[in-house]
Amino acid sequence: MDLRVLQFTYEAAGQSEPTRRTVEPLGLIRYLERWHLIGWCRTRQGLRDFRTDRMRTVTVSRLTFAPRQDFSVGDYVRSMPQPTRRARVRFTPASVDRAKREWWLGIVDECPTPSGVILTLAAVEWDRLAGWLLSFGA
Q1: Alpha-carbon distance 51 to 35, whole Å?
Q2: What is the bridge-based pairing of β-strands 3-10 and 116-123?
């Protein structure tokens, strides 16, 4: 059986334009309530984690690839950083949908308020969370 390369357009969080990717698929796993394709991205020359709900126009190319002996989906899952921090953040009604779509480490709790929604976000490190929150502006 030939292992085939996938080509697709990917809408990464925080990016204004989708990018075209050429990927050797290595595994399909579900975590944080979403399916993820783990693969060797020929475009970026590295191992990448693609949320399948952000993949568009997926095609199976005629290009083939050899199995990667140095990769194991199980090892990949065990090496993933585990969220150990929680942040309660109030989002306006206009921004809460974006927050739910983009925050990749998961939403632990959701509490509607008169002025918006308080989401409890799982986090690995504060810097990455703070940077993402700043992308919402005022």
Answers
A1: 6
A2: unpaired
The CA–CA distances, whole Å, from 19 to 55, 93, 98 equal 10, 29, 20
Which pLDDT score, from 0 to 100, does residue 5 have? 98
Query: How does residue 18 score in pLDDT terms, banded at 50, 70 and 90?
Result: very high
List the beta strands (DSSP E) in the chain. 3-10, 19-31, 34-41, 46-51, 55-65, 85-91, 107-113, 116-123
By 3-state DSSP, what share of the chain in percent is helix, strand and coil, each rounded to 5? 20, 50, 30
Residues in CB range of 84: below 8 A, 6 or more apart: 124
Q: How many CB atoms lie within 10 A of CB 76?
A: 15
Report all structural domains of the chain as residue ranges with CATH numbers, in order of start: 3-79 (2.30.30), 85-134 (no CATH)
User: Is residue 74 within 8 Å of 109, Cβ to Cβ?
Assistant: no
Q: Tokens in use for 66?
A: 């050899």
Confidence class of residue 103 from pLDDT cuts 50, 70 and 90?
confident
Q: Quick one: average pLDDT of 84-98?
A: 93
What is the rounded CA–CA span in Å between residue 124 and residue 103?
12
